[in-house]
Amino acid sequence: MNTVSLTLQEIGELAAQAFAKNGCDVANTEALVRTVVTAERDGSLSHGLFRVPGYVASLRSGKVNGRASPRVTHKTPAVIQAHGDNGYAPLLIERTVPVLAEAAQKLGVAVVSATHTYHFAALWPETEAIAAHGLIGLACVCYTPLVAPAGGGKPLFGTNPISFAWPRPGRSPMVIDMATAAKALGEVQVAARDGHEVPLGTGLDAGGKLTTDPREILKGMLLPFGGHKGSAIALMVELLAAGAVNENFSFEAAEGDNKDGGPPRGGEFMLAISPELLAGPGWAEHCEKFFARFDAIEGARLPGARRHRNRLSDAPRQVNAELVERIRRLSA
Ligand code: NDP
User: Fold this and answer.
1) At what angle do helices 8-20 and 321-331 cross, to 10 degrees?
2) What is the pTM of this model?
3) Residue 307 Cα, ligand 1 centroid: separation in angstroms?
4) Fold of 3-181+224-281+305-330
5) Residues with CB under 6 A from ligand 1
6) Which in 5, 21, 140, 196 has the greatest CB count within 10 A?
7) Angle between helix 52-60 and 8-20 (nearest 10)
């Protein structure tokens, strides 16, 4: 793979051109750029520049509103409604998290039903933002049917990621962010593009046979991680991110989608809990004892630690050269 060296600022400028030239207003461009740049900064490569052509495709087809102005209202003091105005999720998330955090800090717990939005990114930006307020964060979204339930040979679940962040005062939070598919679709697409194999168990070919070839999996279906247990969590994500927020299940999202290469319309479930109010003073010190035990186990590392280490470097990032050219053409 040929790469070019780009600073984080150059990555931001490249993405900003593509969004602004394809119908995004300033607020949406800036929120999308922050999402792309932080993904590249942290090494979340399948959710940074790699996603820009997909974002642009849905702006050009008119499916996604580049001038969306998400509206955040309270249904009850603890239940927040975020209407995305059919735009991309980053601006909705930036407007919603402060409202969610304020409610959870006051009440102990608060929840968001986000609808009419298009999520095409990683979920850690929202759960880390919740944790930055000293709160426990949970978020999940559905997608389109790509993953077969355990034992089945027909996709029904999306790759259905779920993210959980735990605040650690004075330190980076502990952040889990994972697809409930054995691998995120973006990772399989990147492997197909770069000609790498994926581990057996990632997915099935169109005939339902296990394969390590990502191109065959893209014609077939993914599998949940961890057999029936991952399958159960994928099912839970469908119910939270669609049933509980009154938005599309993955199968409904696919039925209403124009398949332009961008994400389908969906919802997002977000939850914030105050450990200060739930556990009481001393919770952080208590939990640090647990983290110290964890860190003492050789070979184990906390989820999120790889990204937090990557972000310490402000060196230029190596980006796929073909992708950079493609994004430049989209901005022309
Ligand atoms: P990974 O399997 O790479 O990682 C999952 C989690 O496990 C991360 O928190 C990661 O932390 C952690 N982890 C990885 N390796 C280890 C290890 N050896 N020890 C301890 N922890 C580890 O992620 P996925 O491929 O499942 O998902 C990638 C991304 O795709 C996610 O950000 C997800 O939100 C996104 N996604 C978005 C979708 C959407 O519709 N918007 C759909 C599906 C996925 P670390 O990052 O530090 O490595």
Assistant:
1) 40
2) 0.95
3) 10
4) Ribosomal Protein S8; Chain: A, domain 1 (3.30.1370)
5) 44, 47, 119-124, 141, 143, 159, 161, 163, 176-179, 183-184, 186-187, 301, 303-307
6) 140
7) 10
